[in-house]
Every structure is written in C-alpha cells, then in structure tokens.
Amino acid sequence: MPDNYPLLDRIAAHPLINKMIDDLLFNQLIHEKFAGPKKPIDKADIRKAVWLCSLLAISEVEIYRNKGQILASLIYLQYKDNDFVERASYVLFSRLGNLTGARLLSNAKTFEEIDEAADNFYELGLDESLKLEIALERNDKSIVSSNGIILATKFQKNLWDTLLTPNNILISAPTSSGKSFIIKKFLASQIDQSESYTVVYIVPSKALLNQVSEDLRKEVNLEEVDIKTVYLHDVEKSKNSEIFILTPERCLRLLKERWQHDFKLDFVFVDEIQNVEDVQGRGSLFEFVFREISLLFPEAKIVAAGPNISNSASLFDHVFGIEGVAVDTQVSPVFQIKATIRPINDNQLKVNINYGGTTSQEHLLSTNVNFKKEFRNIGEGLRELIQLCGADEQNIIYAPTGKNAIDWAIKFADVQPFKIKLDPWLKEIIDFLTDEIHPLYDLISCLKKETAYHHGNLPDIVRKEIEDCFLESRIKHLFCTTTLIQGVNLPANNLFIPAARKRNLPLTPFDFGNLIGRAGRIRESLYGTIYCIERYEDEDWSEELYSKSYRKEVQTANEQALEKFDDLVSDLSKSFLDIDKKHDAYAVVYFRQQFAKDPIELQNYLLKRNFSKEEIDQLITPLAAVIDDLQIPKDFLKLNPTIDPILQNELYSQIFNDPIENWLIPSKADNPNFYERISLEKQSESSFQDLSFYLQLNSVVSRIDAIFHIRDEAFFKHSVSISTKQICFYSIEWFNNKSLRQMIDKDLKFYSTHIDEKKRIDKNDPDAVNERIKKLIKIFSIVITHILIKYLKLVNDMVELKMTDEQKEKYKFALALPTMLELGTDKVAVMQLISAGVSRSIALKVFKEFEKVYGHAEMDIVQWLRSKSELKLKPIYNRYLKRMRLLKDD
Prior knowledge:
Number of strands: 19
Strand content: 5-15%
Radius of gyration: 29 Å
Structural class: alpha/beta
Mean pLDDT: 88
Low-confidence stretches: none
Shape: globular
Number of helices: 40
CATH class of the largest domain: Alpha Beta
Largest sheet: 8 strands, mixed
Distance between the termini: 60 Å
CATH superfamily of the largest domain: P-loop containing nucleotide triphosphate hydrolases
Oligomer: single chain
C-alpha cells in the first residue's frame, strides 16, 4: 500500500470536511427544499476544505475521491456566483477526472466549448501550474473517436482504452456511470472504421429493445448499418454491417442459424448481466445463451456489464467459460442526497439526511399538512410530499408492482390541478391513446395532469412515448416498477421510495443500489435526491439499506441451485411439473440440457466450482438415467433449452407416432376452410387439414397443453387465467393485423353482452374497461408472444426433423407461424418494420400507407420509408419514425 495512505485516511476523516459536508447538505435539502433555516458557512472553512479535498481528488481510493466530488458539487450548488468557488469546483472536478461534471459547471456541450470555458476560468486567476494540470487532465480524459471528441470521466476513459484491447471485459459500475453511452460510441467508431462489422447487443427485456435501437440509430451511419431487433434467418443481409438488438429468447434463432450455418460475429455486448441470477427460469436461459455464444463465436469480442458486481472476473469466467478482465468503479458522476421521511406528530416530519452510508443528521420539520393522515393512502400522501419538496422538478415514484404503479398514479393525479395549457406532445399522446386503445384508458386521465405510470406490460409505443416525454421533461411525475432496476434509462431529479419491495419480496441492497442510481441527471444536474418514506413509526428499513454495501457477488441461478445440493439431486429424476415449487425447476432443466449436450463439459463445469468426484457422480447418475431413456435426439434438445427434456420427449413420441400433417397448419392459399365456421358435426367428420385455422390451432395448442400445462404456466407464473380456446381466439386476432383498439372494442362488446351475468361488464364503467384492457395486454404480451410461441417453436423444430425439402416449402406458413405470432402479423413488410425496431402498432399504420401505393408488391418497405420525410399520419407517428431515423431529414 502506498505510503501516503495514512495521510489520506486522516484527511478523509478530517472534522472540517465532515462538518462542511453536513452543513452544506443541510442547506441544500432542509433550506432549499423544505424552506428551513440556513446554516452559516465560513468562507475560510470552504477554502480549507477545498484544499484538503484537492488532495483526496488525486487519490486512487474511490471513497476518498467520492468525498471530494460531493464537496465540489455542494459548494458549487450553494455558491456558484462566487468566483473562488466556481474556480475551485472546476479544478476539483477536473482533478477528479470528471469532465462531464466540469462541462456542466461551465454549461459547455462540446470539446471546443469546454476549452473556451477553461480559458474563462484561467482569467479568474488560476496559476500556471494549475492551468497546465487542467489542460493535461482534459487531454488525458478526452476520447478521440472517429466521430469526434468525447468528454469523459476517468472511468469512461479507462473503459474506452480497455475496449481497444483484445480482452473480453466485464464492466461493473453504478447505474449512472455512463457505461452504455461509451459502448454505443465505441460501436459507432468500430463500424465506421470497418468494411463490415456484426454486433449482437443483448438486453434483458423487450422493454429495452426500442430504447437501445433508437439510441444506436442516432450513433451510426444508417446507409452502412442495418439495426434489427429480430433475427430472421431468411432475410438477406443488405448492408455491410449489422447490429442485432435481441433479448436472450430472441437469441435462440441466431444460435439455431449458427448451429446450421457458418457466419461471423465481431462483437457481443450483454447488458444487465446480473439477470443470470433469476431463479424463475430466465437466469438459466441467460446462462445457456451466453455460454453458447462464447463457444460458437470464439473470435467475437465479448463485453458484459452490470451494476455493483464485486466478482467481475470470476463471474465472466463462470458465465462465458472464458477469461475476461474487469473494468470496475464505484464512483458515480452524480452525487446523491439520501433522505428518510417519516411522519411523526400531526404536522411534523422527521427528516434524516444520509450520505456515504452513515446517518449524518436528523431534523424535525413543522408543516401545514397532517402527513400521518395523508399517508394512509400513498397516492394522496405523495401529492403533499412532492408539493413540499419536488413541485418544480421531475420525480420518479417507485412502485413494487404494476398494479401499485397504476393505482398510485391515478390517485396522485386525481388530486392534481388541471393544466390550463397542456404540452402539445402530451395532447398528441392522449389523442393517440384515445384512438389506439380506448377513451376510458386510465393513463389518459394521468397524462392530463403531467403524470404517468410505466411498467413492463405497457404496449411498446405507449411505453416508448412515456419514456421520451419524461426524458424531455414533459411528464413531471412517473410511477415506475422494477423496469427501473432492469435497465430502462429514466433518470430524475428526485426518486421517492414508499415501499422497499420488489413484488412481494424485500428489496435487496443490490437492487436498492441499482434503483437509486436513477436519482440524478448528469446532463442537467450535479446531484439527485432519494426520499425513502417510512409511513409508520415501527418502520426502519431505509437506514439499513442506506448503510449496506450495494456491491455483491453475483451468482447464477444454477449455482444457487447447486448450493441446495440435496434438493437438486432429488429433483433430477422428476418431471419438471412434479418438482416442488419452492425449488428451482429451471436449474434441473439446465443441467439435463447440459448433460445431453456434453457430459464432459458438464463435469468440467462442476469441477471448476470445486465439487468433488463423489458429488459429481451424485449429480451425473440421475442425469444419465433420465437422458439415456429419451428417444429424442440428444443434440436436438439445445434448440429449446428452457423446456424440460422429459416433456420434450413426450411430445416427440406423440409427433413421431402421428402423420406429420396433423401438426402442420396449411396457409390460407392451401386451405379453402381457413376462416370458415365449421359445425360440430362436420368437425368430427373432417381431417385436421380440412379444419379452419382456428380449429387447427386449437387442436395443436390443446395437445401441447396436455403435456406442458401452458394454462397453468400463464396462471401461476403470470396471473393470467385463460383457456386454450381463448388463447387461440386472441392469437388469431393478433395474427390478423388487428389494432389494439379493434381488439379491445371487440372484447368489450363480447363481455358487455356475456350470457353469464357474473362475467358481464358495463362498457361505460372505467374500472371494468381498464381491467379488460390490462388483461388483454397481458394476454398479447405474455401468453401469446412469450408462452405460446415457445411451445409452437418446439413443435416446428420437431416436425422439421421428419420433413422433406418439398414439405418444408409446402408448409412454410406453419414453420413461420411462431415468428408471425410473436410479431403479431402475417405481412412480410410489417415484420420487416418490426425487425427494424418499429413498434407493431406503428408498423401497421405505416404498412397501410405503403399498401395504398404498392398493394402487395414485394418491395423493401424500410427503404421506401427512408425516402420519405413525412407520411400522411398523425404527428405522433411521424415524430416516432423521425426519432428512429426511418424518415429522412427535412
């Protein structure tokens, strides 16, 4: 350890620095936000604290540098009109390597502007040595890319330099550190310098597909690069370079293509790598996909990222099976004031101010509001609290569930005053929601009060418009679920946390750290404020979460299952459906899949995790007994890695004992009865091939359900109660290019005249209408586009084993059906648009305009779109397409 560490320890603990930060925090929160008294600050003490922190700023110890950054930010926020403070803050930020913060101090946006700002600071009296130091620091922390100079933090510059090496990388950094920003800039630079370049950018959820697609479209030359959010194997490559933005589920198509054909990947980026921990099935899928990518594309550079990971290098090795270097930081360019709000007496609030993991101060505030009474209802209580401390700022309110987000947003909006002059953009969204969803949709009433909710099951375009409106400061108050934790980029001035839960589970310190990273916008502000609200006297969760380390050792779901060794061994002989729901059945599927694929590789996997030979034998023996009894080809199992091989084998036996035609749905051109209503009597006399599309689909889905219990999966995992007939009915509506409004109207008409009085609804009742809308959106976004297509894909993969080339040509419709159902269309042009990142609802609108001109002619609809500067559609559609850079500039 360097000799200067003891000195830095003493400086960091200096009482003057701690008192200065305490007093400045008090003034920034209690005085500025709550109109409390202001503590006097001695200007001589500021100078001395600045001098001490200037030494901490050059330390390699991040917690010391972080303290310097907090002081620099606070003195600037309190005294930015003072010449000395302005200079001192600028010097401290430069010395800290935070050029992003230094840029903000000077309101500079470009490298040239920060140079000019630096000259202005020099004129205020910096000596020659400081001028030289700042110039060198600015030069050292500036990134020179093919697209210009990027002003970076110390962490970002280190990341860029590491990206230029041949190493694979795992990035561990707080949410607001700008890691994704650097990755996107790096990809744009690499593509610009390469004749051809192929990228796979993996995001954890569909909610992120359009956001990342739009961001990357702003960075690259779209004349040279195709950006796609779906991998379609039969679409020819049209540009020299390609970027595929995919979820792990959508990566399976890419892997299948690579298993069958040879092609090259240059770069793989995995965002939010910590999702390998998910024990509800997706963690096992993530690990499978990531390991396969590293095996199938050994020449590709692999970079993964996540927040606050303490075991970066070993996690990379465990997930990808190869070495990777760690690029790690715990410093955020934004500092945060962490407050706890607790109503005590009728008109008093207790406010605790926290920074650096320890409670620094506690204050009692008298208010004109009885918060104890108001906070009996969170939505109403938040109105008063936000009015008190965040009325003129943007606020995110965290909600543990989607239902909480909706309910709280509605109750909050109900008590907000009407806006006399509503933002035109919000008006357009309200008009869109009225036309595209329903006039009684409850989000409309929220938007009229500059309030919204955000969760994973919102329609794509609705979610994207809300995100963009919030980022543009048009929405002031956003009630948001764990989509924040999953990586959706929605920073705010203030974050309110009324409950420390994620669904029905307590928030872990790791999740809490990821969540609070959303407080603060480095592009606009030096800090953000977190308000943990403890509504009752016996609540004390916030201090514990504030004081904990947010870093943790990320452990894959399968490694967690291995820790429950005896349970895992006993489950390895059982069918997926028979495993105790408290156990991780998906880990059992994973280990079966790995054994079937390569028993030696599985043994090496276990040896690397320090299992003894005896323990490995205990696992291998039941695996071998199960896998050896299967009729299904072992190599086939990897095509569907999340589905139990035992159940796959049941389906395989059934398919291979049936005529292949009993599983393949012919196209409309080959089936005159495709949309016919067929009587029960005629159904019993007809062969499968002569049935209607609905009856054929229902036949296949019923047989799938008999083996895999897909209705139970929808109910127990996603809280959707639905029959196989309903699944098929809604699937055909979705497949037939119906808009969401058309499907909602039809559904409401049906339920408003339902023969069963208990199920009948009043279609003029907002609550009843919204319940049906929410259920329909879950059916389309989960049951059809996730659960159903997973099993239809499995059926198709199996029947392909029996099919001749002639049969594959004849039944192209059946083989494409899972993709068409996932995307919600049978139109190739619409699929092309959705693959380009366009939401389904807008793709359908664009297709109607295209169809007016070209009918059903085969033409590249994306190229046609890019030849237009505007379509004859509402402004919201044109604005969306321009943001996606799919319409040409005026």
